[in-house]
Design goal:
With 237 residues, this protein is α/β, with parallel strands linked by helices. It has helices at 8-19, 26-37, 43-47, 51-62, 68-80, 152-162, 176-184, 198-210, 215-221, 230-233, and strands at residues 104-110, 115-116, 125-131, 136-143, 168-171, 188-191, 196-197, 235-236. It contains 10 helices and 8 strands.
């Protein structure tokens, strides 16, 4: 590996990009990237990397045969690095019970709210959205950190209780044990396979709400049951 130092954001992005591809290590991916964009690897250089260029470099250097669809999640992780260090402010909106008929409450595990890039056990905040088929409001931001030192079990319990008023949790990663704890509080955990913009995922959720929500969502919304669409929701844990 020719480049020995990477920013925290770039190291995270490359690690996630490697994990999105089968049997590829971060070290191998760094070598591929150096071949594409040279050194040093920076967010600015990665922004110039095209999807097809990335796919060709992977297949050539690692002797693989990835399709564009297989490479896309990994590429998205690399592009995420451009904005991960930029603070973006999302405006809170007032909400009172009954304001949004047939809506659900969604928790997003995130570092800054723009991307669903947080692990349930490690994220800085939970962004709480009230979501209906026609409207979305960011109604709360809850810090997931505490001043007290907690055991792993206590931390899991604290975070689950923090979102117990929500119907759905989106995170980039959550353990089976943590998922079981969240489910115990009546929250449906959904794990994404790659980093994505919160707005994009919520738009997909709105589409599901407006067309054919799965039975568990329809019940929450107070409407008649419909057909499941798990592919649009994400990976149910």
């Amino acid at each position: 590996m020719s480049q020995s130092t990477l920013s925290r954001e770039l190291a995270l992005a490359i690690g996630l990009a490697a994990r999105a591809l089968p049997d590829i290590t971060p070290a191998q991916l760094v070598s591929v990237l150096i071949g594409c964009i040279g050194v040093p690897i920076t967010a600015e250089n990665l922004a110039q990397l095209k999807l097809q260029q990335y796919k060709k470099a992977l297949n050539r250097n690692l002797q693989t045969s990835f399709s564009t669809a297989q490479v896309q999640p990994s590429y998205d992780c690399l592009q995420y690095s451009r904005n991960s260090g930029q603070h973006q402010t999302l405006a809170l909106q007032a909400y009172q019970r009954g304001d949004m008929p047939h809506s659900i409450r969604v928790a997003v595990a995130s570092q800054q709210g723009v991307y669903i890039d947080g692990q349930f056990s490690q994220c800085n905040q939970f962004y709480i959205f009230q979501v209906s088929a026609v409207e979305v409001r960011l109604i709360m931001i809850r810090s997931a950190n505490t001043k007290e030192a907690l055991t792993a079990e206590q931390k899991m319990q604290y975070r689950a209780q923090l979102i117990e008023d929500c119907n759905v949790l989106y995170s980039h990663s959550i353990s089976a044990q943590a998922a079981a704890r969240v489910i115990k509080f009546g929250v449906h955990p959904i794990k994404l396979t790659h980093i994505a913009q919160a707005s994009t995922i919520i738009e997909q959720l709105q589409h599901v709400l407006s067309t054919s929500p799965p039975p568990w969502l329809a019940k929450t919304m107070g409407i008649e049951s419909a057909i499941q669409q798990p592919s649009l929701l994400g990976e149910t844990v």
